[in-house]
Amino acid sequence: MAATDLAATRRQLLESGRSGKLDAPGLRQVLVDLHEFWLTSKGAELGVRPQSGYAIVAVGGLGRGELLPFSDLDLILLHDGMPPDEVAEVADGLWYPLWDANIPLDHSVRTVPQALQVAAEDVSAALGLLEARHIAGDEDLSTLLISGVRQQWRMEIRDRFPAVVAHAQDRWRRGGDIAHRAEPDLKSGRGGLRDVQLMGALAIAQLTDGMASLRPDSPGAGPQVAYGRLLDIRTELHRIAGRPREQVRAQDADEIGAALRIGDRFDLARVISDAARTISYSTDVGLRTAGNALPRRGLAKLRRSPIRRPLDEGVVEHNGEIVLARNAIPSKDPGLILRVAAASARTGLPISASTLSRLADYAPELREPWPAEALSDLLVLLGAGHHMVDPIEALDRTGLWGRLLPEWGAVRDLPPRDAIHTWTVDRHLVETAAHAGSMTTRVSRPDLLVLGALLHDLGKGRGADHSIVGAELAVQIGNRFGLWPQDVTVLSDMVRHHLLLPTIATRRDLDDPATAEFVADTLGHNRVLLELLAALAEADSLATGPGVWGEWKASLINELVRRAFRLIDGGALPRPEALTPEQVALADKGGFSVDIVPADGAHTFRVTMVAPDDSGLLSKMAGVLSLNGLRSHSATVQSHAGSAVNTFVVVPLFGSPPEAGLMRQQLMAAVEGKVDVLARLDAREAESPIPTIASVTAAPGAAASAGSTDPAIDGAGHPKNAVPALFAVAPPRVIWVQPDMDATGPDPGPDPGEVLMELRTDDRIGLLSRVSAVIERHGALVRWAKVTTLGSTVVDTFCLQMPDGGEDARAALADDVIGVCPPPQPRSDDDGNGPDAYGGTARSGVPIS
Predict the structure, then answer these.
(1) Residue 107 pairs with which residues in a beta bridge?
(2) Which range has the worst mean pLDDT, 353-362, 504-513, 618-627, 676-685?
(3) What is the pLDDT at residue 428?
(4) pLDDT score recorded for residue 6
(5) Which residues make Cβ contacts (< 8 Å) with residue 800, sequence separation at least 6?
(6) Residue 125 DSSP class
(7) Kind plus residue range of the DSSP H or E element containing 719
(8) pLDDT in tens, 234-255
(9) What span, in angstroms and rounded, lies between the C-alpha atoms of 580 and 24?
(10) Do β-strands 733-737 and 754-762 pair in parallel, antiparallel, or remain unpaired?
(11) Bond prior to 369 in cis (omega within 30° of 0)
(12) What are the start and end residues of every segment in region (Disordered) (predicted)?
């Protein structure tokens, strides 16, 4: 067959494919068979036969056996040191007919040592030669090359791995993220065909087992299925474009979708996103696995296995990944999935693929309503800012996120209908929640803010008004989460009205009193709902795309919210709860007492501590709890008959709480000054096993740091000797409320001479003890306090009697309180607008500090 006949047959195959006689896989296989036949025949004509000292070797698409309509022929003419004139004659006889027939060709002529030298010097060449396949001629010569390249690759992979990762990173920078590109590069983009081939190369190096397998019920059903989908789309793209093209253009998308029976361009975009995210996740897992499996040399061989550091009940860190503790039993612990995800978000460490697989196989469904601990872990996850993106993506790619939120399937990989949106709908929800995580201290209900951000567009993809549908779904989900009925109502209203403020602010006259009245009436004069919607509007805009949130839009919404706040009466101020008869009896008895009883959840306990009321007592009580590994979820601080009666709802970090008698002795030692509680808290925090998030990148593709040569970074790109994370996602804030002497009604506020101080911040070890110590150092007396931990955010209210109630004294106290809170991590999009940007003044009109 002449090369011109080969070209003509190629054209006929493409025409028959358009008429529906050949599908994409069939077309690729026929093209492979056709070109192999021609090369074998032509090679025999030129003397390229068995034992001839010549071989034709294919790399690229023909080497993989998946030749696309307009892919180049990547060929190597291999020879065993033949005379140059003879080699040139054979090469010319092979290459010129292909050139004359306008068949794209990428060729080289090499001996085996020459090819090995090229592979040793060039990562791209090495990756290509790893896919080499014998086509014609001396098969022993081809085998010598193929086996030599693979052996060389395995021997040198330890030194070449950083270059391999850098090569992939450079390709990702140029190609972008396929899952979120309007015109994705199917070949070289992140999550594309090259990534699957990269994992194959690492499998040849015996560092991985190829693409990490996903469960059959997972989105994408596995990387090989995802690879096949992208390959079919790329095949149709070539056929429709009539030339080699890797980017799916908008004008070709409908035709590609129709040819593959996928649907329109939106359906095609959803399939591409699904496949790319599946491959991206598997690539991240593969790079981590490969980095951890790199062969050691020298003294490194003598090191003991990495230690397992506990992070939470049943959750440990091992070799830079989140894994299950040896005694964890997923089949008996439904909340383990969320504890694992929360630990990953807190530490910035990835979840081990084997852990995800084990959870998917054995973890049971959470009963409804969810236990309080499960909701708390979900809030910790959502409150971690952009550090939550990777763990949620890992849960989603392995089918676990859909198990927690079955409603998620309707928006998974759903492409946006508006070009202004950067992300798919599901990723937009996650991004909105991530931005909301940096605003949790602006609102009084940070838990509802992050939940509303996660659910606000969940009604999309269902053929009706997504705000109305989403509000109904929010009721269903809120009840499943175990929220109080009034909180379910607020959550549903957030979803129903999440577009209210941006729409009214940009389309109505703000100077018209009816505008603010309409907003207040629509929201039922609910101040909490208004502040939640204000923060959600900003988070939603920031997560939509560049330029959606700016000074003009922010100023309009802020002004609208200020005007609406003036029309809304505030709710009742916090007040202390009445003591129970049992607590009164303990106080009347006097002395020291510690009582521990189980609370509502399986791992939750209520601790009542009684001691003679004295300065510094609260910080010592809270410190004793923290030193015993008990995290306070809420606390009520009161006094009676000369005794402090403080009740704490706690969750042990591990295991069960200590004996009440032991804690009583520790409390007495702390009060008597025999134990410096704060010093021990500092030491405990310095020894915390939780790695710093600051040293782990949270951007998409964080695993790209694998293979770092930094001695402080392990093979998976994570810190070897991490230290505790002492910064917050949201900046800490202090809010002051002074009594309104002219107020009337059943709740005028604190008594004269008292002031309410509300602290909103991310949690840290011993925070309540540290804040109480600061208050005590300023000479203020805590009359009562209510402490609430909502996920990783605390909202603590202290009723203080201050020796000097002036603004300077309050400002100094606030500064010192903020000084012991976790400092906020920098935000590139933070404009410095705090709660006061939304008219956030206290009920008495005293500005927020």
Answers:
(1) 75
(2) 676-685
(3) 96
(4) 84
(5) 754, 755, 756, 757, 775, 780, 781, 782, 783
(6) H
(7) none
(8) 999 999 988 889 999 989 999 9
(9) 74
(10) antiparallel
(11) yes
(12) 821-849
Query: Taking a C-beta distance cutoff of 8 angstroms, is the pair 635, 768 a contact?
Result: yes
What is the H or E stretch that residue 387 is in? none
Segment 148-161 shows an average pLDDT of 94
- If one counts every other C-beta atom within 10 angstroms of the C-beta of residue 653, the result is 18
Beta pairing class for 630-640 and 733-737: unpaired
The helix (run of H) or strand (run of E) holding residue 377 is helix 372-382
Peptide bond into 216 cis (omega under 30): no
Helix (H) or strand (E) holding 660, with range, is helix 660-671
Burial class (CB in 10 A: 0-12, 13-18, 19+), 674: exposed
Residues 6 or more apart whose CB falls under 8 angstroms from that of 21 comprise none
Is 60 exceeded by the pLDDT of residue 668?
A: yes
- DSSP-assigned states of every residue in 781-802: EEEEEEEEEETTEEEEEEEEE-
What is residue 146's predicted lDDT score, i.e. its pLDDT? 96
Asked if residues 773 and 619 have their Cβ atoms less than 8 Å apart, the reply is: yes
The answer on pLDDT for 382 being more than 70 is yes
Model's pTM, two decimal places?
Answer: 0.85
E strand residue ranges, 133-275: 133-137
161 vs 205: CA distance, rounded Å: 10
Question: If pLDDT is split at 50, 70 and 90, which confidence band does 783 have?
Answer: confident
Which uninterrupted H or E stretch holds 214? none
- How sure is the predictor about 3, in pLDDT bands with cuts at 50, 70 and 90? confident
Distance CA 610, CA 629 (A): 20
Residue with tokens 């009883």: 597
CA atoms of 458 and 13, how far apart (whole Å): 45
CB half-sphere exposure, 101, CA atoms < 13 A: 20
Q: For helices 250-259 and 223-241, what crossing angle results, to 10°? A: 110
Single-letter code of the amino acid located at 372: A
Q: What are phi and psi of 707, to 5 degrees?
A: 85, 10
Instruction: Tell me if residue 750 falls in helix, strand or coil.
Output: coil
Residue 58 is encoded by which pair of tokens?
A: 């294919």
Evaluate whether 694 touches 350 at the Cβ level (below 8 Å). no
| Strand stretches in 111-234, DSSP E | 133-137
In terms of DSSP bridges, do strands 630-640 and 643-652 run parallel, antiparallel, or are they unpaired?
antiparallel
> Distance between CA atoms of 633 and 762, rounded to whole angstroms?
12
Return the bridge partners of 438, or none. none
- Roughly what angle, to the nearest 10 degrees, separates helices 112-121 and 139-175? 20
pLDDT at residue 108 tops 60 = yes
Q: Do 758 and 800 meet the contact criterion of CB atoms below 8 Å apart?
A: no
